[in-house]
Amino acid sequence: MNNAFYEKMKKIRAFLLDLDGTVYIEGELIGDMKNTLRAIRESGRKIVYLTNNSSKTGETYVERLKKIGIWDERDTVYTSGDATVALLKSRYAGKRVYLMGTQKLREEFLREGIVLDDENPEITVISYDTEINYEKLCKVALFLKRGTTYIATHPDVNCPAKEVDVPDIGSYMKMFEASTGRLPDVIVGKPYRFMGEGIKELTGCEEDQLVMVGDRLYTDIRFGLNNSFTTVLVLSGETTEKMYSESGMKADIVLNSLNDILPYLR
Ligand SMILES: [Mg+2]
Fold this sequence. Notes:
It is globular, with a radius of gyration of 19 Å. It has helices at about 5-10, 35-40, 60-65, 80-90, 105-110, 135-145, 170-180, 195-205, 215-225, 240-245, and strands at about 15, 25, 30, 45-50, 75-80, 95-100, 115, 125, 150, 160, 165, 185, 210-215, 230-235, 255. The chain is of the alpha/beta class.
C-alpha cells in the first residue's frame, strides 16, 4: 500500500482512462476489468475514456465498449476531436474552419455548430483522416500558405495496428512541414493542456480530483503531469519497468494493471 497515493485518491472524483494497453489489448479485456470498472463506479467516481484517435467519434467508441461488455450509461468517451470542438467554440467562436477529417468527424463538427468552409477558411484543422486524398492535401497546403491558423487534433506519429503501426496525424504534419514550412499553432490532444482543459470543463473537476491512468509515458503520463492531474502508470501495455526508470518521469503510482487499483478505492 502506497499511503501518499491513497491520500491523493480520497480526493479523486473521476478516472481518465486510456483504452488500448490500459483497459484492453487488441479488443481483449485485461484481467477482470469488468469488475474493476464496476468497483470504480461503485466508489462514486466517474469514468471518462480518453483517446487521441480523432478518426472515430465518441459514438463509435461507445459501440465498441458495448460490444466488449464494459459500457455503462454513466461513463463518457472523450476524443481529441471533442477537445478540438471545445477549443474552437471557446477560443475561435464563429470562425470559418477547413477540416481535414473523416466524414464522421465532419458530421460531428457540423452537429456542434462549427462553421465548415472548404474555400475560404480562417482556420485549418487537421485530424487523423483515414479517408485522406490528394485533393484534401492540396487544400490544406493552400490554406496553410495563405496563413490560416493551423490546428492539429493530436500529435501521434503512428496509430497502433495489427501488422504494422500505420501513419497517423504526426506523419501528416511532417509532410505539411516539408511542403509549407509550417508547424501547427496549436496541438490539442494528449499530452497537451487543451485536452486537459476540455476534461475539466466536461467533468466540472479541479486538477486534484482527476486521475489519469495509462500505459504510455509520453502521452498518458506526460498528459497527467502537464495538467497537474494525479497519474497512474500501468505496465499492462507499452511501457516496461526499465523504460519507466530510464524516462526520469514520475507517476504517482506504478501498477501492473488497472485491476490493482482496487485496494485504493476504499
Ligand atoms: Mg495506451
